[in-house]
Amino acid sequence: MTTSRRFHLLRHHDVSGVSGTGIVADGIIWPDGTASLRWRGDRPSTVHWDRIADAKAVHGHGGATEIVFDDAADRLARIAEAHSKDQTAGGMTSGNCNECNWPHPCPTYVWATTARDPLATWDPADDEESQP
Asked: Does 31 sit behind a cis peptide bond, omega within 30 degrees of 0 on the bond before it?
């Protein structure tokens, strides 16, 4: 990895009864693979891990808490994945987008997969065509 990646811990179920649910910590994975985690709440603290996998093993509680990456590129990848071409178990497709049912590639898929600054202002008129 050549850049750091921001993330947060999203707790769906508080196994210990200490942290609560929702976003309970913010973190960063450094380019060398180590991770820092800053806990939110009444008694915040910072913890450093040699690997993110160790933090997940300790704080994941069997899926009760997930690591959610905050990077813009990761968000765009999730958007593109949601707007993929529909396909049945047998491999058949209508040729439309799973999410919006427009012909694939839909304008949202094109927007999410086009090289651009994801934090820049976007004018939908730049990419979108009229729906058929």
From this structure: no
**Got the DSSP string for 11-50?**
ESS-SSSSS-SEEEEEEEE-TTS-EEEEE-SSS--EEEES
Interval 12-35: pLDDT, tens: 877 777 777 889 999 998 988 899
pTM comes to: 0.53
- How many of the other CB atoms lie within 10 Å of CB of 97? 20
Query: What confidence category does residue 112 fall into, taking pLDDT thresholds of 50, 70 and 90?
Result: confident
Per the rule left: phi > 0, alpha: psi between -120 and 50, beta: everything else, 62 is left
Q: What is the DSSP letter of 97?
A: B
Cβ atoms within 10 Å, residue 65? 23
